[in-house]
Amino acid sequence: MKIYMAPLEGITSYIFRNAFAKYYGGIDRYFTPFITPHPKKGFSPSEKRDILPENNTKITVVPQILTNQVDDFVKLSREIAEFGYDEVNLNLGCPSKTVTSKKKGSGALADVEELDRFLDGIFSRCEQKISIKTRIGDSDEKEWEKILEVYEKYPLSELIVHPRLRVDFYRGEIHRLAWK
Q1: What is the CATH number of the domain that holds 145?
Q2: In angstroms, what CA-CA distances link 180 with 86, 130, 145, 156, 175?
Q3: With 136 labelled, which of 11, 91, 95, 174 sits at a CA distance of 20 to 30 A?
Q4: Which residue range(s) make up the domain with 64?
Q5: What is the rounded CA–CA span in Å between residue 110 and residue 67?
Q6: What is the pLDDT along the chain (180 residues), one digit of tens a residue?
Q7: Regarding beta strands 4-5 and 64-65, do their DSSP bridges make them parallel or antiparallel, or are they unpaired?
Q8: Using an 8 Å Cβ cutoff, are 88 and 77 in contact?
Q9: Spacing of C-alpha 93 from chain mean position
C-alpha cells in the first residue's frame, strides 16, 4: 500500500513536508497545495519556493495544478517540468465555492463533455505523466459512472478518489454505493 500526503493550502508547504518526513516519515509521495496558473506573471514567490528541488531533496513531491483551461495547464506543466518534475496532478477534487463557481476543481465534474474535451486537450499536448485527484461527482453519486468512463479514455498515471460529491464538501459519510 502507498501512503500519500494530501495537500492543505497554507499548511503543507515544503517546510511542513520536510519536517514531517524528518520526524515521522512513512509517506511515499507528497502532493503540493494547488498552483493556479498566472499566464502573465508566472509563479508567485511562495509557489516557486514550494516546488524548488532544493527545498524538496529527500521527499517525492508531485505539484498539483488547478485550472480548467488547456493552454494554461500545458504552459504551467511545462514550467514545472523545468524544475525536473516528471508528473503533475490535476485537482478535480476541491469543493471550495470560490473554486467550483469558476468550474474548476470538483466544479468541473458537473459537465462531463467539457471535462472530456479538457482532458483530451491536456493529454494530447503534455509530455509529463498526469495524475488526477477527483471526487465522484457534483451532486449525485450516479454521476461517477460517466466520469469514470471519461477517465478511462486517458493514460492517467494515477487516479486518486475522494468518495464524496462536490456538494458534500468535507461533511457526512463517504458514498460507498458508488463503488458497487
Answers
A1: 3.20.20.70
A2: 34, 26, 10, 22, 10
A3: 11
A4: 4-179
A5: 15
A6: 999 999 988 899 999 999 999 999 999 999 999 999 987 788 888 999 999 999 999 999 999 999 999 999 999 999 999 999 999 999 999 999 999 999 999 999 999 999 999 999 999 999 999 999 999 999 999 999 999 999 999 999 999 999 999 988 888 788 876 666
A7: unpaired
A8: yes
A9: 7
